[in-house]
Amino acid sequence: MTRARFDRHLLHGALLVSVVFLMLADREFLGWPLVFGVIGIMVAAIAYEEWTDGLRPLPDAAGNTLGGLIGIAGGVWALTQAMGNKNLPLSVALIPFIACLIPCLTVVKILRRQLTRDFWVLHALGVVQVAIGCILGADDIMVVPLGFYAVMSLASLRSHLAGGIWPGWRVIVWEGSLLGAISLTGYLIMPSADVPIWNPSAAFGASRLATGFGTEMDLNHQGKVELDEEVVIEIDAVDYSGRPATIPLDQRFRAVELEVYRAGRWRGSATSTGGRGVPLAQPPLPALLVRQTLLNFRVMSREITTPVIADPALFLPVPAPGASRRGLLRRHLAYQQIVAEENKRDRSPLQDDIESRVRQEDLLSSPEALRPWAWELLESLADTPGQTAKQVASPLPLAELKEAQWRPARLPHGFFEESAQRLCRYLALGGDYTYTLDLDRT
Fold this sequence. Notes:
- By secondary structure, the chain is α+β, with helices and mostly antiparallel strands.
- Helices cover 44% and strands 10% of the residues.
- The chain has a four-stranded antiparallel β-sheet, with no helix packed on it. A three-stranded antiparallel β-sheet has the order 3-7-6, with no helix packed on it. It has a two-stranded antiparallel ribbon with strand order 1-2.
């Protein structure tokens, strides 16, 4: 290894990290086998290039042919996959699947004969992969590979501009730390849509911006729940004539965030809330009838990220008069909701369509303490579906689920609601913590 090759070695490392970053962000759309396959191809290509020291490049004709085949065959595959999504324009639905082809084309570029300009072309491909990864995924853990990419890419550029010599660990660590501090500060300060995974309908629509981290509930971590006396939310009720009304003692409230369970995390529905907290509708609300009550919600806490609404959700909430729907601070959120008197107060889906697909690997990859419970839940719902039988015509495909390991499987809609209720009861009765809800009537 010569000192003049350090810039290329660092570039290869940055490209590998960018591919890992992109594939992890794309895992929700491609599945783990394809994710690991693409990463494996990139690792093999870089290992071959390093082993041969770039002296055995792929012939130009073979490289052009291989790139053309990837473009044609991959384009047909991406088009086929995207056409299955009826809720998005084809040009938008193609993005997650076209993203899978970029690392494959990058592999061809690495294996071909390297020209002077190819150093910058490969850097550009790495930036493209990272940019698409930032669009597709917004998990907090994704900052780790993103930070590695930024440090290695910066070190590669420093080495190239210095003639290919090793820039030194001191320079890499100092500049990388400075870059990381600036990036993290910008992430926490800049307002963003609270969307945990890529959702064009929410990200490109009217979403409520906020600073800080997301609102999802992650069950993959253990810790203590700290309680305080801070007032989180205030609610007042008025009847159809504007006079104060009484909230029933058995009134149930729900957090919109508990809609979709995936890999140990509860998130907002991709089709209804997009993880944005309360899915506010366009004002005004319909006129109140005699047997209806208007609830006014005011979020008081700075910490709360997922406000609650009353169950059942007869109408979606709307912003309160004078409240800013696009406020940058969550504590300024105020909204209104209509509820019906003497109505069944069991938990129910929201008014719009809820994405009720739960995949097999979501339960099996849950925290280890929940895995036996997950299989017990599957078997109990399959043997005694209970309320599920009223919502679906066919039983749960338990045998099919056990045979199709680590592959997505569609479950009936009733399974989603019943599994959510059982999981909440499981956690509430675990004995590790308790919670209460006090109604302060004034």
